[in-house]
Amino acid sequence: ISYSLQHLFPQGGRDVFEIDRNSGEIRLKGDLDFEDVGLYRLQVDAADQGNPPLSGHCKVVVEVVDVND
User: Fold this and answer.
1) Which residues are 17's β-sheet partners?
2) Is 26 within 8 Å of 18 (Cβ atoms)?
3) Phi and psi at residue 62, in whole multiples of 5°?
4) Is the whole-model pTM more than 0.85?
5) How far apart are CA 12 and CA 27, in angstroms?
6) pLDDT, tens digit, for every residue of 29-68?
């Protein structure tokens, strides 16, 4: 199974998350700041290598909470 990540909201959130194409693990590429963006909406797509290939997707919502700096 191969995984890919779509960034649905906000549009500028493309540089924040990455996904491991083999395991589907979502990782941060940098720091999150509650004052900049409080919510991210992502879509994970998964597809196999079958014939015909099967695919599916799910939505992931990441809520950033404020902590003391």
Assistant:
1) 28
2) yes
3) -110, 115
4) no
5) 17
6) 888 887 888 899 999 999 999 999 999 999 999 998 877 6
